[in-house]
UniProtKB/TrEMBL annotation:
Organism expressing this protein natively: Streptomyces haneummycinicus
A Pfam family this chain is assigned to: EPSP_synthase
Record domain Enolpyruvate transferase: where: 1-164
Molecular function terms, GO-annotated: 3-phosphoshikimate 1-carboxyvinyltransferase activity
Family per similarity comment: Belongs to the EPSP synthase family.
Keyword list, A-Z: Amino-acid biosynthesis, Aromatic amino acid biosynthesis, Cytoplasm, Transferase
Protein name, as recorded: Enolpyruvate transferase domain-containing protein
Transferase in keyword set: yes
GO biological process: amino acid biosynthetic process; aromatic amino acid family biosynthetic process; chorismate biosynthetic process
Keyword Repressor: no
Gene3D superfamilies the UniProt entry points to: Enolpyruvate transferase domain
Length: 172
């Protein structure tokens, strides 16, 4: 989204972790990735393309992918994730509401989300005590000025150091 570069150290050559699917998805969205001795390197082109992707096997990626898709240059459809209505919060409803509150155009489908990019503006991004909602808001904040995460501390569920790591990544 920003045209930057992120290195994730110690990324394995093979893994069954859902996050590994990001290599394929982010490449389809216009970025590139390469596994190097330093780790997995993601490089953005500065523009993001919409995708039509089934996330059924990697549903936990949906909030982050939805945030990136909201900043794309064409629509996206995220499918196969109806089960996200039963997580810490109804993630599909929450993503729809929060992205739309920032000026987006997201609608729920029977099994996912349809996202039509719009120019977004700042505002409070509510997390619903859901760590993945907090990280989705942080992703939007990379490209949208004045996005405030209502409770970033909820990321402690899976990554207690998220706020410090995020700040360090940004060089702030």
């Amino acid at each position: 989204m920003t045209g930057g570069r992120v290195v994730i150290p110690d990324w394995p050559a093979r893994t069954t972790q859902p996050g590994d699917r990001l290599r394929e998805i982010f490449t389809e969205m216009g970025g590139s990735c390469e596994l190097t001795e330093s780790g997995l390197v993601f490089t953005g082109s500065g523009s993001v393309h919409g995708v039509d992707v089934d996330l059924g096997e990697v549903g936990e990626l949906t909030p982050g992918i939805a945030a990136v898709a909201a900043l794309a240059d064409s629509p996206s459809t995220l499918r196969g994730v109806a089960h996200l209505r039963l997580h810490e919060t109804d993630r599909l409803a929450a993503l729809t509401k929060e992205i739309n509150e920032l000026g987006g155009d997201v609608t729920e489908t029977a099994d996912g989300l349809h996202i039509r990019p719009r120019r977004l503006h700042g505002g409070v991004f509510h997390t619903y005590e859901d760590h993945r909602m907090a990280t989705a808001g942080a992703i939007l904040g990379l490209a949208v000025e004045d996005v405030q995460i209502e409770n970033v501390a909820t990321t402690a569920k899976t990554l207690p150091d998220f706020p410090d790591l995020w700040t360090g990544m940004l060089g702030a």
